[in-house]
Amino acid sequence: MTSLAPTTTLWRPTGPEELELVRALDWRAWPPRLPEQPIFYPVLNEDYAIRIARDWNVRYDGAGFVTRFEVDTEFVGRYPVRQAGGETILELWVPAEELDEFNAHIVGRIEVVREFR
After folding, report:
1. Spatial CA neighbour of 103 closest among 94, 90, 91, 112
2. What is the pTM of this model?
3. What angle do CA 16, 20, 24 make, to 5 degrees?
4. Tens digit of each residue's pLDDT (9 = 90 or more) over 23-45
5. What CATH number has the domain bearing residue 45?
6. Distance, CA of 97 to CA of 101 (rounded, Å)
């Protein structure tokens, strides 16, 4: 009998353009970063993702979405947790050149769990 490897839940606040790219990737991967985006920032809690999607993405993109996805825990452990402000403002910094490998360790699909307009 095989057991499933443990996963870690991550969230990502995103705007409509990035969400369309995720949809085009069949909800299984994040699109490559733009040249001015050297780091991919998934966050460690839904509340932080909500604040960014609602307060930043809506203001600049007209809509904000909170996505949730699972990543192999052993793999994601290579990225230290970064505190980007307050106690609950936690994120991972994945270098853009490692995003393909990161995507290969996503378990299941990326799902939209909240939407703000």
Report:
1. 94
2. 0.93
3. 170
4. 999 999 999 999 999 999 999 99
5. 3.20.170
6. 9
